[in-house]
Design goal:
With 196 residues, the chain is mainly alpha-helical. It is built from 2 helices and 5 strands. The protein has a 3-stranded antiparallel beta sheet, with no helix packed on it. Strands 1-2 form a two-stranded antiparallel sheet.
């Protein structure tokens, strides 16, 4: 009897006589002993069996609660086997959901406080930089004002010196070579006092 079904050549038959899980490629007859019902029913049973095995594998793959094994402290090292002179250290149970939530909340509070402290630090650094800029500008203005005052006093001293020298000039009105007379010396005066 020839099977006219298009999937006839691709289906396989598991045969328990060749060891567990042995797969033998053989055509499955729709009305044969492997498939007592119709061919479609056989395929749907196989699909259910495959889904069942996938579900079972998934359930078995889920993590199961594991009892922690005791640890042993051997000097400065830790071991999972007892050692001479070693001290047993009991495993600490994993935190429950309430403790985990409390730790997460504490972490969020700490992170929020750290962010606030960073913002405060950046604000303080910006304020300090602005203050330093203002001080630098004030120092530059003070140095410019002092330089102008020094230049003004030097100009006044030159004028006073020239005025004094003007009265001591000899008949020609000019000195030779633009040099001072040999007896002249510079005398500084305080501004506005008129004293020497």
């Amino acid at each position: 009897m020839k099977n006219e079904h298009p999937f006839h050549e691709t289906l396989t038959h598991r045969w328990s006589g060749h060891g567990a899980g042995a797969v033998i490629s053989a055509p499955i007859e729709p009305n044969g002993p492997e498939c007592p019902a119709r061919f479609e029913a056989c395929c749907s049973l196989r699909a259910v069996a495959c889904l069942g095995s996938i579900l079972l594998t998934t359930v078995l793959a889920l993590p199961a609660p594991v009892e922690a094994a005791p640890a042993w402290r051997c000097g400065n090292a830790y071991s999972d086997t007892p050692c001479p002179g070693g001290r047993r250290i009991d495993a600490i149970a994993a935190p429950d959901e309430g403790a985990r939530r409390a730790a997460d909340e504490a972490t969020r509070r700490i992170e929020a406080r750290a962010d606030a402290m960073e913002r405060d630090r950046l604000h303080a650094e910006q304020a300090l930089a602005a203050r330093n800029d203002r001080l630098l500008l004030a120092q530059q203005r003070l140095a410019q004002a002092q330089a102008r005052e020094t230049a003004r006093l030097a100009m006044l001293d030159k004028r006073e010196h020239a005025r004094r020298q003007g009265g001591k000039k000899s008949g020609s009105g000019k000195r030779g070579g633009g040099r001072h007379a040999t007896g002249d010396s510079f005398v500084a005066q305080a501004a506005g006092t008129g004293s020497r």
